[in-house]
Amino acid sequence: MPQAIITKAPSADLWPGQTDEAEVGFSYAEVDRILFRLVDRRLSLDEVVADGFARELVERHLGGAV
Q1: Is residue 60 a contact partner of residue 26, using CB atoms and an 8 Å limit?
Q2: Residues of the chain with pLDDT under 50
Q3: I need a surface site. Which of 7, 10, 60, 61 has the fewest CB within 10 A?
C-alpha cells in the first residue's frame, strides 16, 4: 500500500486541505482515549474530566455516549 494512503488524514475531501478532525474539532486519538475511559473502564464523565479532558469536549461531542 502506498505510504501516502497510510499517512493521509481522514477526510471527506470536500475541499483542498479539509480533514475530518479539523471539522469536528478534536482528534481521533483524543476520542479514543476518552472512549477507553467511558466504555472500557466505565468511568463517569466527572472522572474523565478529572483525568484531564475538557468537560466541554466530553459533553458536547461525546454526550450521547456518556
Answers
A1: no
A2: none
A3: 7
